[in-house]
């Protein structure tokens, strides 16, 4: 079953509710889930709202990236969020840290899936070089995928441009791609972008899509997305 995660990037609980109500449709062969990132989690009431969600896949995108001790402690503070299905960690934080996050996350609930974030979809090759990376984005994502596999993470997050290079390395893992735009929509700060159809064709198991759905009428936008897949 392919998955579509709608990024609820807002600090408003009513807005999040509107997005969920408008997009939580039953679609053959697809499952819809909701991603909450730092904006919503940090907002007043955001954490509490997330903790009460039932019967929908919940993806908590905190992109943990710190020293192993701090990362472990951060995960410990999430133990009450038993309903979380996915959590993210930056692979950039190193093997030791991602192993610690994996171990601690399983104490939140044993079915939680830990996803390694590789190179952000907002980075262009030039911006990537400017941070100091000598390898290409493609080779870095491949290296990240190997680390994620070694740490037994459940999946990797990268752009749909890199998916075809990961199928072998990430066999049995989920490959999730943000940087998704409905045809004709502005790409805004994203750089390595595809349409939903292209991401799935490239081999993604799941996509993350935010503003193409949440700006304007989420219900109509979701219908447009679904139509674009057939
Ligand atoms: O609005 P848009 O579709 O660009 O939102 C993409 C979402 O995916 C955001 O919540 C962003 O934090 C997240 N994300 C991303 N690139 C990654 C990992 C996560 O855009 N590599």
Task: Describe, in plain words, how this protein is organized in 3D.
The chain has 230 residues and is α/β, with parallel strands linked by helices. It has a single domain (2-229), classed as TIM Barrel (Alpha-Beta Barrel). Helices cover 37% and strands 18% of the residues. The protein has ten helices and eight strands. It has an eight-stranded parallel β-barrel, surrounded by four helices. Helix 8 links the parallel strand 7 (174-177) and strand 8 (206-209). Helix 1 (13-23) packs parallel to helix 10 and helix 4 (68-76) runs parallel beside helix 5. It is globular, with a radius of gyration of 17 Å. The model has no long low-confidence stretch (mean pLDDT 97). It binds cytidine-5'-monophosphate (C5P). Cytidine-5'-monophosphate is lined by residues 7, 9, 37, 117, 120-121, 157, 178-180, 190, 208-212.
Task: Report the CATH superfamily.
Answer: Aldolase class I
Number of domains: 1
Strand content: 15-25%
Q: Count of DSSP helices? A: 10
Kindly, what is the distance between the CA atoms of the first and last residues, rounded to a whole number of angstroms?
15 Å
Order of helices and strands: EHEHHEHEHEHHEEHEHH
CATH class: Alpha Beta
Strand order of the largest sheet: 1-2-3-4-5-6-7-8
Biggest sheet descriptor: 8 strands, parallel, barrel
> Spans of 5+ residues with little confidence (pLDDT < 50)?
none
Indicate the overall shape. Answer: globular
Radius of gyration: 17 Å
Bound molecules: cytidine-5'-monophosphate
- CATH fold field value: TIM Barrel
- The CATH architecture can be named as Alpha-Beta Barrel
